[in-house]
Design goal:
Ribosomal Protein S5, domain 2; four-stranded mixed beta sheet; 2 domains; three-stranded parallel beta sheet; 13 helices; 333 residues; Rossmann fold; alpha/beta
Length: 333
């Protein structure tokens, strides 16, 4: 029996959790079994991995294959484990594991043609790999040019499984830098200022409300703006993030990871300006506070406003369950 160990990542809530993918290739009737509390999408990865391996010109071992996902008590969901499972099978069938395997994480969904596709929460997964002490991580090349800006870890981008095999064999990372057309749309670097910020200088008059905004920004206080329609409450609230201190590098990446799990556009993820979330007053408690279903967590407006501003326009119009759900976060700060 030959055994291979590959590092993968799954999303748990709004953070990444390292998964140890152990693949045992042994004698016996040809079969593939996945253990370790996988959901349907992870259990089906064995078929995607097999088709991708064969499409990449590699031989799928005609032996008994057992895939163990550790820690076993954590529910594994999503297609991000396709790549580490495929790499584990290929390494387990070979005589000698590559030197890069022990310090490299693998994240990505596999197509039947061997192409790599990005999965939800990719930035959170990369940050989890960095926190685990890995030196490098292999991710899909599609739409991931901004991940190269994450400090402390080498991000290698591959188009398909064949490129990953070449990387493990010691070849140069041809796709470690993005194509020219992708670099031009990759977005700003970590800590970059916003392109067109809303500035408090746009507000004329309102000396007392402006002073209240400055006090709230300096002390991190909650703020209630009360007045008739059209006096500028929304105008002032939208400019509060512009006078908050810029996000540090770690906080900027933390906010970006939350937004990546939520599937928001990536063009504005790596900004130094604190985020602002402004839900409509008809939003449900789940939309405001977040929800969990089938092991997947959908961040709500409260989470999306992390390290920033949660603006509740027409606050009395929100439903009672939504406002009751905000009581403890407001009291605890």
């Amino acid at each position: 029996m030959s055994l291979a160990t590959v590092h993968g990542v799954v999303i748990d809530g709004v953070r990444g959790v390292m998964v140890r993918v152990e693949v045992a290739v042994s004698d016996g009737l040809p079969s593939v079994g996945v253990v370790g509390l996988p959901d349907a999408s992870v259990a089906e990865s064995r078929w995607r991995a097999r088709c991708a391996v064969e499409a990449s010109g590699q031989a799928w071992p005609n032996r008994r294959i057992t895939v163990s996902l550790s820690p076993a008590e954590v529910r594994k969901h999503g297609a991000g484990l396709d790549l580490p499972i495929a790499v584990g099978v290929l390494v387990g069938a070979s005589a000698r594991p590559p030197d890069r395997l022990a310090t490299t994480g693998f994240i990505g969904e596999l197509g039947l043609d061997g192409r790599l596709r990005r999965s939800a929460g990719l930035l959170a997964a990369v940050l989890a790999a960095r926190a685990a002490g890995l030196a490098a991580v292999v991710v899909p090349a599609e739409g991931t040019a901004d991940l190269a800006k994450v400090p402390g870890i080498v991000v290698t981008r591959a188009r398909d499984l064949a490129q990953v095999c070449a990387f493990l064999a010691g070849a140069e990372e041809a796709s470690s830098t993005a194509p020219d057309h992708e670099e031009s749309t990759a977005g700003p670097a970590v800590g970059a200022p916003p392109c067109d910020p809303l500035d408090l200088r746009d507000v004329r008059g309102h000396d007392l409300p402006r002073w209240a905004l400055e006090v709230a920004a300096a002390g991190g206080h909650h703020l209630a703006l009360v007045g008739p329609p059209g006096v500028g409450k929304t105008l002032l609230a939208q400019r509060l993030p512009g006078i908050l201190p810029p996000l540090t590098e770690d906080r900027s990446l933390e906010v970006a990871a939350i937004h990546s799990v939520a599937g928001l556009p990536r063009s504005s993820l790596l900004l130094a300006e604190p985020p602002i979330a402004s839900p409509h007053h008809s939003a449900s408690a789940a939309a405001l506070l977040g929800s969990a279903r089938g092991g997947r967590v959908t961040p709500g407006s409260v989470t999306l406003a992390h390290h920033g501003v949660l603006f509740l326009d027409e606050a009395p119009e929100f439903t009672r369950p939504a406002l009751e759900g905000l009581r403890q976060p407001l009291e605890s700060g």
